[in-house]
Amino acid sequence: MSLSINHQDITQLSVDAIVNAANTELLAGGGVCGAIFKGAGYDAMTEACRPLAPIKTAEAVMTRGFNLPAKHVIHAVGPIYNQYTPEEAKCLLAQTYTTSLQVAVDYQLNSIAFPLISSGIYGYPKEAAYQVAVETIEAFLTEYDLDVYLVLFP
Q1: In what order do the strands lie in the sheet containing 111-114?
Q2: Please, how many CA atoms are within 13 Å of residue 99, restricted to the half-sphere of its CB?
Q3: Most CB within 10 Å of its CB: which of 27, 43, 64, 70?
Q4: Overall pTM surpassing 0.85 (yes/no)
Q5: Which domains does the chain have, with CATH numbers?
Q6: Burial class (CB in 10 A: 0-12, 13-18, 19+), 105
Q7: pLDDT (tens digit, 9 = 90+) per residue, 34-55?
Q8: Is 71 helix (H, G, I), strand (E, B) or coil?
């Protein structure tokens, strides 16, 4: 299948799963995380996440999408850029994408939409984060059949 780059509101996409750029405690945050919790229904998403937390950087877990058009939300924790060397951060960011994609495959999902993980308050330079995302997703798609959307902030 394919990788598509678009500029939409990720919370409005009707896909099998959207990826939440989550924190390790899986709590509602700002940016895309806050928008996903709001769209899903804050209380329902908080309750669904509570027993799954904490998770580590580069790990991912899945919940229902609740009130979102997406059926599921994959909560993935990207690296906080200034806590690692650039090379370590790059490896962790790539691993975050791969882990999320593997969750989608494990649950036999056909479509997944990603934000640009770690590029907001986690401080990963946007151009570098974009390059890691595209390279990692394209490499994964050589072995697996998924429709993947990389959603850049409109």
Answers
A1: 3-6, 147-151, 111-114, 17-21, 72-76, 60-64
A2: 22
A3: 70
A4: yes
A5: 3-151 (3.40.220.10)
A6: middle
A7: 999 999 999 999 999 999 999 9
A8: coil
